[in-house]
Specification:
20 helices, Growth Hormone, Chain: A, about 425 residues, globular
Amino acid sequence: MQRLFRLLGPSRSFRSLLIAALGDDLAKGVATFLLPVATVSLTTSPVHVAAVTVCLTLPWLLVGPLAGLIVDRADRRRLLIGAELVRFAALCLLTAFLAGGWATLPLLYATALVLGVTETLIEPALVAIVPGVTPRGWLEHANARIVGGRTVMDSVAQPVSGALASLGLAIAAAAAAFGFALAGGGYRQMRGRFDQRRADHRAPTRPARDRLREIRGDIAGGLGAILASEPLRTITMASAVINGCWAAWWSVWALYALAPGPVGLSPFGLGVLLTAGTVSTLAGAALALPVQRRFGRRWAIGINILGNAALFGITAMTSAVWPIALALLLGDFGAPGWAVAANTWQQRNVREDLRGRVASAYRVLGFGAKAIGAAAGGVIAAQVGIPALYALCAVVTLATLVPFFRYVTEAAMGESFRRGHTNDTIGPQ
């Protein structure tokens, strides 16, 4: 048992954080599988089905920058607990409506919005809180365990989601609600001080205009830190393009894969098929650090670009199950290496009280593009068909290799990481 604890992490608080994050990821996987399946049961319109993905991702554009500021000013532990409780309540409501046969498209969209808004708080809070429960020299290992563990949950979520949806959509929603409750309980077990607010943020006597100006400046600080770093700026822009293409691909995937679509799968069959991708992601998580040591941190990013282009291109050319399974294997392998490299870069190079805003700005640009991509995907698929949409995604993804080869050099990444071991961190002093 002691050996297992050492494997999970160096402290009780980190182990609690890890287990809670994994529980949340499993519950979120079930919920995000459930929502488009429930939508397809109500409509076959590509635009209406894609709207679920839009609602899941649009909050990054609408409230993402403010969420980063909240993460830097609030108690991050309490923030995580509160977000999980909101998710739990939303899924309980959805469970009741699905069980009664009263579910509607507006209800599904509202649930997706709740998940999206809470994600804008949870994701940057997780990145920002890790250094508070982890020794600095162990950050890469901590991020590898979080990314790898969440990958395991993704691999479990797909077949579990398919099986639960086959039993009943209300059962799947109830299982997701239970998972969010467990995640909130896990975060509650963490110990330490997680409130990063400075005293001047709490001063009550300043004029409202000055406070508003400060808030705008603080929000802009995260984006400014990204723009000041050439490697991070390029990685963020590539993330935006690839995430937008992925959202366009996913937004109509249920129509393409579920019967009577071209692939012709049942919900359970779809869950099994998606497991191919999550198993590949698990392998990518296990090999993330060896890949960095063998090929360099640069190619932790580059492999994911090539894999996503292959995913989009193969699904554009065929609706046969086995080639699509291969596409998922190729497309999902590089995601963990990208996440480990990008998160560790931020944690080592960004000042503590700016870390939440940088993590949020990174996701506003990267994840916010999902909302645009999902909306565009539904419209383009309705006009020219799903295969043509997927081919366009492949071409656009390959185009990101041009700035990648120019700006994301191993020398630049290495210099940034060496600087991360000093006090010369990003952010105004």
